[in-house]
Amino acid sequence: MGTTVGYNDNMVTVGASFKVGERGNVKKVYPGEAAKELTSLKKHVAEQDKKLVSQDQRIGQLETMLKEQKEINEKQQQIIAKLAAKVGV
Fold this sequence. Notes:
Layout: E1 2-6, E2 9-13, H1 31-87
Antiparallel strand pairs: 1-2
């Protein structure tokens, strides 16, 4: 409720809000349930963090292997080029 006064015009306003229909898919959350869900989510995030560390280590190993293979491949290509030059291919 509100009022407005000024210029010799006194006014009064009243407003109301109503919700029509069902509450929708809003679920009532109780503190105990929220705490359990939070604990579960923290555990899940910790497991994912461990997995990410493991994956990062594996990616590092694979990158090292790839670099080594590229070096071996380049050396083999040089040897093949020398052999082809000797044979006349």
